[in-house]
Each structure stands twice: as C-alpha cells, then as structure tokens.
Amino acid sequence: MGQYKFILSGGGTGGHIYPAVAIANELKSRFPDAEFLFVGAQDKMEMQKVPQAGYAIEGLWIAGLQRKLTLQNAMFPLKLISSLWKSRKIIKAFKPDVVIGTGGFASGPLLQMANMLGIPTLIQEQNSFPGITNKLLSKKANAICVAYENLERFFPKEKMILTGNPVRQDLIAIADKRAEAIAHFKLDANKKTLLVLGGSLGARRMNQLIEKELKNILAQNVQIIWQCGKLYFEEYQKYNSEKNVQVVSFIERMDLVYAAADIIISRAGASSVSELCIVGKPVIFIPSPNVAEDHQAKNAKAIVDKKGAILLKESQLDAEFSLVFEALLKDPEKQKQLSENIKELALAEATKQIADEVVKLIRKK
C-alpha cells in the first residue's frame, strides 16, 4: 500500500484555493500518513492561504494572458516555458500518485506536465461555464469532477462526474447555531440581518451600492454585516460608527455569519454559489461583470432558472435594487420559497465524492 503522495494546484482567488484545500483535508483524513504538496502562482494569494491551512506550497512564475497587448502578454511564452520546466522538476522530485487541479493559472502547466509524464490527473471544475485552462486540460485528464449539469459541450462526457463543489463542512449544520451566531456578532434578535458578501477580494460596485442604500436599509429595521474586502476596508470602516452596521474586511466564522443572516446579497463566484445552496437562505446575486467569460452571471442564472435566487446585474442596481430588496424583505412567503428551492440544488457530499474519484485513480495505476 505504501504512503500516498498528492500534488494539488489551484489559485488566484479563494474560489480555486478553497476547493483544493478541502480535497486535501478529506484525503488526509482517509490517509493520515499521505504527503501533500501544493503548487500555485508565486505572487498570488495561495502563497499565504495554503500554508495557513497547514500545507507546503511551491510557486510557479505564471500569470494569465491579458486581453490587450501588454508587456505581460509578451512575457507569457517565457513564463509558460519556465512554469512547465519547474512543474517537471517538482513532479520528478515529489513523485505524486495523483495530481489534482482546481483551476487558476498554475494548474495549467502543472497538469499538462503530469499528463506528459503519465501521472493520473483529476480536474475539478467549479463553474457552469469552464475556463480556458480546464477546457485544454480536459482532453488528457483521467477524471473531471463538475458542479453543474450539461457540460458535455466543453468536456468529454465519459470522464465527467457530477459531484458539486467542495464546501466547508461546518456549513452543513448551521440551523441550530442561530443563538450562538447572534451572540457572537452582538446582533439584535428582533431585527432582520442582511449579510453582504463581495468575495475574497471585495467588490467595489457592491460597496458603492451599500453605501448609497445604507440609510434606506437601516430604516427598515434591518441590521447589516458588510464584508467589504481588505482592499476597501480603509474606505468603508467609518460606517462602523453607525448603529446596526458592522463593516469587516474578512469573516473567519462563515458558519455563524450564515446562521445569523436572514437575507444575503452576494457575488456569484462558483464556491460562493455552492455554499449558498447548502446554507439555504434567500439570496440576491449581483454577479461580477469583470470575470473571465462572464462566469458569475452564468453561475447565478443556473440557480435563478430553478427559482432559487434573485439576480440583479450591476447595470440594474441604481434603478431596481431598493424595490427588489424591499419587496423581498416584506414577503416571508417568497423568502421561504427561495430558501427551499436553492437548498434543493445543494450537493453536500462533493468533497467525499471527489476524494472517492481520486482513490479510484490510485487503484487503477
């Protein structure tokens, strides 16, 4: 049986890093003496987040192609060759049993090299509309774990397994944490709580919206937990002086914040959407328009099409936000309907299923 070795790669945003860490944690609980190595892009957030989760990481000199002609693009071939070369060195030295990619720039050269060296690879695609890296890698990958149906037009059908996205396991039992959550965030149990989530880096347009609507929201007997992102904390922390407003750059206890929330306004990154399905609260999605291939709008639409959430485009916010928010706040029946419908879409066992697929690849070797 021996000691298993796994290389995982995913990064650039929390949406790629978190699933990779969740998969590693699940494999570690099954194989306590397995060895793990992460590979990321050397100047991205995974270089901090992965060691915080207790895993070693190596960085590649890689970045994505910009949409216009820039020096970055001129350097791309050089960075790609350097990253392929370093990936080869890492794989040869570490000798993994399986290489797992969850998206982001670094997973491209790493999995490409693993495929060339004949090492089994698994990719986990979080979005309803795959990125270019995973589309290219899918031709050679041994298994492709997806979170949405109908991806046959992007990936070979026989390799796809519908698993859902890995989510924090502590979100699955939030129903009985409400009292603890209200105490933790010092909330008023008689007010409705609005939770605003702009993603791991924060979202300028969402912050501007909440700033503009703040008085109106508070006037409706609502309290707010507003995660503005660390890039914007300086600018918005002044609102902490308002009664019933908490502005934070980052939330450690996501389980408790979800337990406290009555209505959630969120970006529509793939891992946020998957978490919100499990959490099962009424959600207004405001997709980021500045992500590759408009992923977020497509992720949100997949939920909205099944009547599980409300979707507002950034371009609609000024005209429609206050009407939509007030209507939802005053309609408990609609809140209940959205909660029930979004919960139907949850795939809570994703991490375990993905680990099962990894184990199958080891057994096939």
Automatic annotation (TrEMBL):
UDP-N-acetyl-alpha-D-glucosamine binds at T13, G14, G15, N127, R168, S200, I251, Q296. Pfam families: Glyco_tran_28_C (PF04101), Glyco_transf_28 (PF03033). It is found in: Cell membrane. InterPro entries: GlcNAc_MurG, Glyco_trans_28_C, GlycoTrans_28_N. Pathway: Cell wall biogenesis; peptidoglycan biosynthesis. SUPFAM superfamilies: UDP-Glycosyltransferase/glycogen phosphorylase (SSF53756). Keywords: Cell cycle, Cell division, Cell membrane, Cell shape, Cell wall biogenesis/degradation, Glycosyltransferase, Membrane, Peptidoglycan synthesis, Transferase. Its EC number is 2.4.1.227. It is a peripheral membrane protein. The keyword tRNA processing does not apply. It catalyses: di-trans,octa-cis-undecaprenyl diphospho-N-acetyl-alpha-D-muramoyl-L-alanyl-D-glutamyl-meso-2,6-diaminopimeloyl-D-alanyl-D-alanine + UDP-N-acetyl-alpha-D-glucosamine = di-trans,octa-cis-undecaprenyl diphospho-[N-acetyl-alpha-D-glucosaminyl-(1->4)]-N-acetyl-alpha-D-muramoyl-L-alanyl-D-glutamyl-meso-2,6-diaminopimeloyl-D-alanyl-D-alanine + UDP + H(+). Residues 6-144 form the Glycosyltransferase family 28 N-terminal domain. NCBIfam families: murG (TIGR01133). Cell wall formation. Catalyzes the transfer of a GlcNAc subunit on undecaprenyl-pyrophosphoryl-MurNAc-pentapeptide (lipid intermediate I) to form undecaprenyl-pyrophosphoryl-MurNAc-(pentapeptide)GlcNAc (lipid intermediate II). Belongs to the glycosyltransferase 28 family. MurG subfamily. This is UDP-N-acetylglucosamine--N-acetylmuramyl-(pentapeptide) pyrophosphoryl-undecaprenol N-acetylglucosamine transferase. It comes from Flavobacterium pokkalii. The gene is murG.
